[in-house]
UniProtKB/TrEMBL annotation:
Residues 50-451 form the Amidase domain. The lineage of its organism: Bacteria, Pseudomonadati, Pseudomonadota, Betaproteobacteria, Burkholderiales. NCBIfam families: PRK07056.1 (NF005460). PANTHER family: AMIDASE AMID-RELATED, TRANSAMIDASE. This is Amidase. Gene3D superfamilies: Amidase signature (AS) domain (3.90.1300.10). It comes from Pseudaquabacterium rugosum. It comes from the Bacteria.
Length: 483
């Protein structure tokens, strides 16, 4: 599939995104190998420490050099044009180990083939730069890893030197993008693992409807909830990555903000917001109102049922226990786990087959009722997470604080996974604020509508405080390309 997105140039003074970099290569204003050198230098910078578990330097350079030779020969360039893309250490890359950030898998054999998602990225011309760090087995929204070290949040460090968490579980992937070591990061989202680090680092994370992207060749956490998706620098980059990973052409629509009907659920998702998140979220809603968007507060009381549905640990506990139980039964292997991850996995041991079957029935009923309640909305708006990135040090030493903060970070984004819906997190903070994510979401199959609304909101936010891509990065820039 030939996926090309309209190549507007980046506005002066703004960090370029992947689409603008592809444009620069196509137009001969940059070479893929030069941009890869810049990505490698960023990966070597102390700000990117602990983001990567292993680097794929030789193959990435070969891809970039091949792209440059193809351009010199006048051939058509692939959609990603030899640019750096990082891979979460859950996905198989041919010739590399896949270890899920875990010590217990340190002796895993090398993969004999790329998983489908990686193969699609490679076919699209991505220079695969390495496997990135993560919460062990992707089981935390905070991003700590006791085996490989935890990458500090590089975005918050520019405003405050106190180290803050990167967000998880796709911690290293987000840091690789925030630092410039990659233009996009392949990751997974089971309860917010793409959107949480995107929100805490001022990036874009798009969780698509689960069935649209392949999950083979990926170490699972919860097959019922796991979704293959990406972290990017802009919403239009998210459109491009989704098109590649899902092997489909998104059908975007151009609608003025005044034509949009947006819902703001107040059950659960607005509880306990810190002052920075509350202010940024309300300012964004006011901007949308001023632009003519129709905003409606809705109760959506079904969200209040989530704690009861997941009281025993939910699908993640039950399904992760099924995958890990043999290793955890061996004391020599069990002691190699992150104790906090092992504790959460072991919750699944007490979930019976009847409990698990009942949970599936309850979920289907819950989805039906939520979809009925939100029918007629173009999208729903919520804060991605209720807080800015927490300071790291207290979470390293205190288990009660760790589990409390982890639950808060997962609370809002996990709604979308249980719904089997789709959601984008995009930055909505002012330049002098710690990052805040706005979550634009909808039910299963609403991916293109969510992306279209996200593009329009991103353009509005840029016009207001220049905290994102140029204002002409809206949906109309993406509609005239062939696939």
């Amino acid at each position: 599939m030939d996926i090309q997105i309209n190549p507007e140039s980046i506005a002066p003074g703004l960090t370029p995104d992947l689409v603008s970099a592809v444009s620069a290569i196509r137009q001969g204003r940059a070479r893929a190998s030069e941009l890869l050198q810049a990505s490698e230098a960023a990966a070597d910078d102390p700000a990117c420490a602990h983001a990567f578990i292993r680097r794929f330097t030789a193959q990435a350079r070969a891809t970039a050099q091949g792209t440059d030779l193809l351009r010199q020969a006048g051939g058509p360039l692939p959609p990603l044009a030899g640019l750096a893309v990082s891979i979460k250490d859950l996905f198989d890359v041919q010739g590399q180990q896949t270890t899920a950030g875990a010590q217990v898998l340190a002796d895993a054999p090398t993969a004999t083939a790329d998983c489908t998602a990686v193969a699609r990225l490679r076919r699209a011309g991505a220079a695969l730069v390495g496997h990135t760090n993560l919460s062990e087995f992707a089981y935390s929204g905070i991003g700590l890893n006791p085996h490989h070290g935890t990458p500090a949040n590089p975005t918050t460090a520019r405003l405050n030197p106190t180290p803050r968490v990167p967000g998880g579980s796709t911690s290293g992937g987000a840091v690789s993008v925030a630092c410039g070591a990659a233009w996009a990061a392949l990751g997974s989202d089971t309860g917010g693992s793409i959107r949480i680090p995107a929100a805490l680092q001022g990036l874009v994370g798009f969780k698509n409807t689960q069935a649209l992207t392949p999950r083979d060749g990926c170490i699972p956490l919860s097959p019922t909830l796991d979704t293959t998706c990406a972290i990017t620098r802009s919403v239009r980059d998210a459109v491009l990555l989704h098109a590649i990973l899902a092997d489909r052409r998104p059908r975007l629509s151009v609608q003025p903000l005044a034509a949009l009907r947006l819902a703001v659920p107040h059950t659960l998702m607005l509880d306990g917001l810190d002052s920075t998140v509350a202010q940024a979220f309300e300012q964004t809603l006011q901007l949308l109102r001023d632009a003519g968007a129709h905003l409606h507060e809705i109760a959506l009381p079904e969200l209040g049922e989530l704690a009861g549905l997941q009281a025993q640990g939910g699908f993640a506990a039950a399904e992760s226990w099924a995958w890990h139980r043999a290793r955890l039964a061996d004391p020599r292997q069990a002691e190699r786990y992150d104790p906090r991850v092992a504790q959460r996995i072991r919750r699944g041991e007490s979930i019976s087959a009847a409990d698990y079957i009942d949970l599936g029935h309850q979920r289907r009923d819950w989805i039906t009722r939520v979809e009925r309640a939100i029918a007629g909305c173009d999208a729903l708006l919520s804060p991605t997470v209720p807080m800015v990135a927490p300071v790291m040090a207290p979470l390293l030493s205190s288990d009660p604080r760790f589990f409390a903060i982890n639950a808060l970070l997962l609370r809002n984004p996990s709604v979308i996974n249980l719904l089997d819906g789709c959601a984008a997190s995009l930055p909505c903070h002012a330049p002098d604020q710690l990052p805040v994510g706005l979550m634009v979401w909808g039910p299963a199959g609403a991916d293109d509508r969510v992306l279209s609304v996200s593009l329009a909101i991103e353009a509005l936010l840029h016009r207001t405080h220049a905290a994102g891509p140029p204002s002409d990065f809206g949906p109309s820039a993406l509609l005239d390309e062939e696939s």
